[in-house]
Structure formats: C-alpha cells, structure tokens
Design a protein that fits this description.
Elements: H1 3-8, E1 14-21, E2 24-29, E3 33-38, E4 52-58, E5 61-66, H2 69-72, E6 84-89, E7 99-104, E8 109-113, E9 118-120, E10 129-135, E11 138-143, H3 145-162
Parallel strand pairs: 5-7
Antiparallel strand pairs: 1-2, 1-8, 3-6, 4-5, 6-7, 9-10, 10-11
C-alpha cells in the first residue's frame, strides 16, 4: 500500500472544508457541502430576517441564502453580493429545506484534520456558533447547524403559509 492510500484510509482523519464568510471562516465536514457555485442573482424576500439574503435557484429548487455574520449582528446589512454560494446539505434537522446556500467571500478549501490539529479558542460565542477553534494558525468557527436549520425551517414555513 502506498503512502497516499494510507493517508486516504486513516480513520482518525476528517475531511473538512473551510468556508470564508464575512467576519468568519466556517469549518465543516465536507459531507455538509453539496456544491459550490458562482455568485448569481438572488431574489430578495420581503420581511425576511437579516440573515436571509433571499432565494436562489439551484437544480430546479429554490434555496434560501444565508448570510452567516448576520446571526451575530442582526442590525448589520448583508452585502449585495459575495464570491460564491456554497450549497449545503441539511445536516441536523429532519424537517425543512433539504438544501440551503451560504454566501462565501472566497472559495472554500479542503483540509484534512485530526483531533490534534484543532485547539479550542477561548472567545465569546454567538448564537449560531458551536465552537471556535484554531486550525493551525487560523481561527475558524464551527457553526451551529441545528440552530441555522431551525431558523430556515421557520422562515420557509412562514413563506409557504404567507404565499
């Protein structure tokens, strides 16, 4: 067995993706990401919370677009555009949209991690954060996907009921 096969089959490693968003780098297992696509026009939703930039079409579906930084600062206005959209698989809740998109300011990148690669960062967490960690020299946020997905479920339920 060659070295590449040993590394690829290491059960202690986790394939992750770092997603650069406004004011945070999100760290997630790569199985959470369905697709990365270029930025496209987003249809705004009237009376949507600040964290929802609107809706975007993807593979015949309409996905809500999340601006992660707005969970921490609801008074802040999301930018009109970002670099790309990261289509996320629903990970934590059994109801609500199967997919949603995160606005990213840069291209996400893959990282292979083991437990020793992560060091807990002692910082104040926001409502949508589970933990902040140091990945090497970088600070990354592990988002609270259950919270985000519950917010999306509530938003989409209201949107369906209202129209």
């Amino acid at each position: 067995m060659n070295t590449a096969e040993v590394v690829a089959n290491d059960p202690n490693e986790l394939s992750c993706v770092i997603i650069p968003t406004h004011q945070a780098q999100l760290l997630l297992p790569n199985v959470c990401v369905a697709e990365i696509m270029p930025w496209r026009r987003i249809k705004t939703l009237s009376e949507a919370p600040s964290w929802c930039m609107g809706l975007v079409g993807w593979r015949g579906q309409t996905l809500p677009v999340v601006h992660f930084a707005s969970f921490a600062d609801p008074s802040g206005k999301p930018p009109a555009a970002a670099r790309c959209l990261v289509v996320m698989n629903r990970a934590r809740t059994s109801r609500g949209p199967s997919f949603y998109a995160l606005a990213a300011v840069g291209l996400p990148r893959m990282v292979q991690l083991v437990a020793d690669d992560l060091q807990n960062a002692e910082v104040e967490l926001n409502v949508a954060d589970v933990m902040q960690v140091h990945v090497g020299t970088e600070l990354a946020t592990i988002p609270n996907l259950a919270f985000i997905e519950e917010q999306l479920t509530d938003l989409m339920s209201k949107a369906v009921a209202g129209g």
